[in-house]
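Quick log. Single chain, no ligands specified.
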Amino acid sequence: MIRGFALVVLVCSLYGQSLTLRIDVVVTDSERLPVSGARLQLTSDRGVDRTAETDDLGHVGFLALRPGRFSVSATKAGFEPLVKPDIVFDQPGTAKLELTLTPTLARTESVEVRGTVMAVEDNASTPNTLPAKKVKELPNRPATVADALPLIPGVVREPTGGLILSSSPENRAALIVNSADVTDPATGQFGLTVPIDSVEVMSVYQTAYLAEYGRFTAGLISVETKRGGDRWKWEINDPLPEFFIRSWHLRGLRTATPRLNFEGPLIKNRLFISEGAEYETKKTTVFTLPFPFNQKKQQGFNTFTQLDWVVSARQLITATVHLAPQRFDALNLDYFNPQSTSPDARTHNYTGTVADRLTLAGGLLETRFSTTQFYGDVWGRGTDDLVLSPTGNSGSYFAEQTRSARRISGAVNYSFAPIKSLGNHQFKIGAYIASSEHDGDITRHPVDIVDNSKRLLERITFTRTRSFEVDDTEKSFFGEDHWILSPRFALDYGVRTESQQISGAFRVGPRGGFSWAPAAESGPVIRGGFGLFYDRVPLNVYGFNRYPNRVVTFYDAQGVVSSGPFLYLNTLGQSRVRFPFVSQRPVDGNFSPRSTIWSLQVEQAITRKLKVRATFLKNDADGLVVLNTVQPDPETGLGAYLMEGSGESSYRQFDILALWHLRDDRELFMSYTRSSARGDINDFGRFLGTAPVPIIRPNYRGTLPTDLPNRFLAWGVFRLPRKFQIAPVMEYRSGFPYLETDAYQDYAGIPYRHRFPTFLSLDARVSKDLKINPKYSIRLSVSSFNLTNHFNPEAVHGNVSDPAFGYFFGHRGRHFTADFDFLF
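-> predicted structure:
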């Protein structure tokens, strides 16, 4: 059963970055009379984009904002448009802004900003952000947060489909939606993320030095969803399916991804709703296999509902519900794993949150409760042995698994009112507690390794079906101060503590950073920081010793047993590494994966329309959970697969990011990333995920399979005359490393020493809006992919015993799609 939990607040010091700011805007004309019906658009440097119209008093209020840099535009028929960029409100509370519109043909205007304008940005580390509104216009039409994230430097999608951040798998990163953890408690994976239509802005921190954030070593993905507006809005995207046509014959549906999004007030000025719903059925063609046995299928719903209740000017309550059931057929289908060997799977993700924000004693009190449930099943398409050969696999997938995971969590944070003492201090304190469970059943079938002549080389069998059940309680406390010593220099310093009951470990993470603007407003801003970060160890690690054990037998050319059978037990090791900021009890599984991260960043506005940011990042991790092999004793035949916290990794990244903002409807993002990733390759996630791999090879420390030395990325959205729009995306990067194996499916030489060819893709989407009547529009669009028809293979013959060894194949050439949306 899930344990009850209590919230405890530790009084420390912290800089507050949360939804603490309200901006009240009053619009008047040149005679100081209120202007009603003026349309205002508020954007921020974090990608927030909100619109509203003034009331009869010329007033509009923007609630629940984070302090930062804003741009405000106001338009109304009969008046000159007014745009005021670079307005800085860096204090929590209420800020006043007065705008004066002038009649058409007049040229005098004034603006009064009441607030403190700072030359230094809020944080020692700024995130890379994605405005959802613009991302939706790109050629791949991302439907969820996970679909859009590879548009950010440092985030790519690996060949197997998972996201990697700073060359690390998902289980080393954190994903929060409205500050609530939504990752799978069992695996640390993201699962099906929030629909893109419900998102206001996505932010990726590779160096989140604020002690408010924790439970990750590779980075943090923060998603803020949008609140319903003062007017009802409806939008239907991709309402019609895409048909699969081959050889001029209709072969059924290829995809159907209708999305419905609406928002509006349930009670005027009090209660608002925002809903994003998507149904998806998709067939993905695997070009390396013959038709019709090359179709992966995915089907499911993804809905996100948000209610915002403005209790008063001092209190806001937000509730969200995310439901995401899915079904997969032929989950890992590829050339070497045809349909018979590829598993089917079913997953369910349910998350609910309630958050209360209350202005109290000049500060902000935030209380948040969240519950998350994950269910997952995976099974093969038969009971035959899985047969692995150098040229491809046959038989049935080797594993059947049913599992469920649950987490209930609560958090309380308090941002104090600013304190003036040798500058300006902004303190914040908080606590988090979570109770989680993971249980399931696992059955595994034999695996046969054969050579090209189908001669049996090795046979792997498993002991009986096993069940497991584990639970854990996590606690963390934090405190930090954002100390503004002058308008050009600020310090962040604080500490965070984390503990996991199941690991018997208590961890302390000090952090600090600075922001410095050495010159005038047009000069550069320099940021830097240092911190210790700790991973939360997923619960499936602690279920590993309850998995079925392996029995391995080897055979000679006559089919007679040459050695074995050897029994490999699944075991948990103990960490004996001494680290001054970690206290560990001597128990199995006392892991504390940690990273030491420091960074230096320089940001410079080249012109009013072009901003450039250069960042160097160094991330050294140790104590990572990896799977090592203990060779069997020659006499007893007893060996082990040892899950232990001895892994290390080293990641270096230098990137340059440029934002060219021609105007609100014309933006171009460009980035170049140079990076290096080395470490232990046997990350536990490869063997304990939804669809684990059948072969366990010895651990090796070297180039990681996610290493990408060079990557250039550019994308933008440009409005054209006659309501046309073009959204290009270009990516040029190094190829991923691949593994060379021998007939025994073991390493053939140094792992991951060779790479796929360089990847180049130029995509674009051209669209046009057509008015049906003053209220409704249709958006027609055509998307093109790999316009240059560059050779981007998806597979390689990597077994040295394969006659086609070294041959790359599976090129996805130039292709086009068409779709349309309804705009209400």
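The longest helix spans residues 132-135.
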